[in-house]
Amino acid sequence: MEAISKARFVRIAPRKTRLVIGLIRGLTIEAARRQLLVSTKISAKPVLKALNSAVANAVNNLKLDEKSLMVSKAFVDEGPKIKRHTPRAQGRATPIRLRMSHITIVVSAGAEAKKVKKAVNKKKASAA
User: Fold this and answer.
1) I want to staple 58 with a disulfide (CB 3.0 to 4.6 A). Which of 64, 67, 73, 128 is the partner?
2) What residues are paired with 21 via a beta bridge?
3) What is the dihedral of CA 24, 28, 34, 35, to 10 degrees?
4) Which residues, in sequence order, are CB contacts of 113 under 8 Å at separation 6+?
5) Which positions ≥6 away from 75 have C-beta within 8 Å?
6) Nearest to 106 by CA among 2, 26, 30, 13
7) Domain residue ranges in the chain
8) To 10 degrees, the CA torsion angle through 65, 66, 68, 73?
9) Is the whole model's pTM more than 0.85, yes or no?
10) Please, are residues 104 and 18 in contact by the beta-carbon 8 Å criterion?
11) Distances (CA, A) of 51 to 54, 98, 123
């Protein structure tokens, strides 16, 4: 069983957030929390918030044990851009795109997460 959490419209660029998401993918909840708490990246805070929400969903809605949970899937999608302009030389303007992220974290019981990870590895091996 899987519990999902989504943090949408986070005002951090997806490229920066993907660096942090890559750190926690496949880890246990305790190890993922430790990793996020010591990270100096600005996007670690909203990722931690989404992780805690996914764990709360698993514990309260699905009645899973928090100690057996793992981060089975974690990814970041690009949200809408806020478009602004800044003045440049000779009366020109340069666009500024303020990017947003949609963070999705899926946690599942340890045995299920290992099965998902093995299936992903098999697909990668067969593709290569």
Assistant:
1) 64
2) none
3) -20
4) 26, 70, 71, 72, 107
5) 18, 21, 104
6) 2
7) 2-127
8) 120
9) no
10) no
11) 5, 24, 26
Instruction: For residue 102, give Cα distances in angstroms to 30, 61, 125, 128.
Output: 23, 23, 29, 30
- pLDDT band of residue 31 (cuts 50, 70, 90) is very high
Query: Is CATH 3.90.470.10 the right assignment for the domain spanning 2-127?
Result: yes
What's the CA dihedral at 1, 49, 23, 102 to 10 degrees?
80
Question: Which residues are paired to 83 by β-bridges?
Answer: 97
| Exposure string over 38-65, b if 16+ CB within 10 A, otherwise e | ebeeebbebbbbbbebbbebbeeeeebe
Which single residue is written with the structure tokens 């299920």? Answer: 112
Q: Each residue of 55-64: pLDDT tens digit?
A: 999 999 999 9
Please choose, from the candidates 66, 47, 68, the residue with its C-alpha nearest in 3D space to the C-alpha of residue 56: 66
Nearest to 39 by CA among 54, 15, 23: 23
